[in-house]
Design brief:
Helices cover about 40% and strands about 15% of the residues. It is an alpha/beta fold and about 300 residues long. The chain has one domain: Alpha/Beta hydrolase fold, catalytic domain (Rossmann fold, 3-Layer(aba) Sandwich). Strands 1, 2, 3, 4, 5, 6, 7, 8 and 9 form a nine-stranded mixed β-sheet that branches. The longest helix has 15 residues. The relative contact order is 0.16.
């Protein structure tokens, strides 16, 4: 652990979520991956989006683990994963190689993936780079198309302004950003904002997220989409204010045989806002009887 991350145990201890949900670190050559694992059977990997961590899958990990070996991990620069080289480039290739390192570290030869937002784009890039290691792909309000990000994400790409913005973040600012991600903003409370805010107190995370924002390009991913051969499903909230629902048509033109599911009255994070519906869709797509899945209390 670097000097920059000496505060990690203290910050993790402030997470109410981690007090009630057991997590581990998987040591690999480049990273110590913070992750949660539950269930048995075919492996399913949950990949969060930008600015988030595995906490975002709290409502779906348990129900899906009734039928699959579910893994939720923090990507490099996010949550409580530690990267050994803080001076690295942190770009799309970083994320692709990180996913491979996690699977190899877990002894997983092939898995299905669920990716949200930027996480969906990272999953698509991984599937294009290592198609033999991917079974099925489920995307939730996903990146992967060569379109501009919303203003606050574009702001992170400006070297000085992005760094300042990350340093002055407060729980209140995070809560307002989360409210933009939800159609039903009553679901965004102070506890949720604090869970998302805490990993941003880690200096190396702030630096890495600025680097990722500056270096991330989806151009090659979009160009490669017609080559995908994996069964792929796209879930999208019709009230997404980050990535407009009309992007589903562009994805459908690019990905052969794409299954598209639009959730009405839902924002950018259906797995948090409508977890029951998302669990049912995932169970049907991945293979499993959704009527037997029991949603955790916080998902009601």
């Amino acid at each position: 652990m670097s000097i920059m991350d000496q505060r990690l145990p203290e910050i993790m201890n402030r997470s109410a979520f981690l007090h009630t949900h057991a997590s581990k670190h998987l040591e690999t050559a480049g990273h110590a991956f913070h992750h949660m694992q539950a269930g048995s059977g075919r492996p399913v990997i949950l990949v969060h989006g930008g600015g988030m961590w595995l906490y975002t899958f709290r409502h779906v990990l348990g129900p899906l683990s009734c039928f699959y070996a579910v893994h939720a991990l923090d990507m490099p620069g996010y949550g409580y994963t530690l990267s050994r080289d803080h001076s690295g480039i942190f770009n799309l290739e970083t994320m692709v190689q990180a996913l491979k390192a996690y699977l190899v570290g877990q002894g997983i030869e092939k898995a299905s993936f669920v990716g949200h937002s930027w996480g969906g784009g990272w999953v698509l890039a991984y599937a294009l780079a290592f198609p033999h290691m991917v079974d099925r792909i489920a995307l939730i309000d996903s990146s992967g198309l060569d379109v501009p990000d919303v203003f606050e994400w574009e702001l992170l790409k400006i070297p000085v302004l992005g760094s300042i913005f990350m340093r002055i973040l407060t729980p209140g600012m995070v809560r307002r950003r989360l409210m933009k991600s939800f159609y039903d903003t009553s679901l965004v409370d102070r506890a949720m904002a604090m869970e998302v805010y805490l990993p941003l107190c880690i200096p190396s995370n702030r630096k890495a997220q600025c680097r990722i924002s500056r270096n991330l390009s989806w151009k090659t991913v979009e160009q490669g989409l017609p080559a995908l051969t994996h069964p792929t499903m796209l879930i999208w909230g019709d009230q997404d204010s980050y990535l407009d629902v009309t992007l589903t048509r562009r994805f459908a033109r690019k990905i052969p045989g794409l299954r598209v599911e639009i959730i009405q009255g839902c924002g950018h994070s259906p797995h948090e806002e409508r977890p029951r519906m998302v669990v049912d869709l995932l169970a049907d797509f991945l293979g499993g009887p959704p009527e037997r899945l029991v949603l955790s209390r916080q998902g009601h």
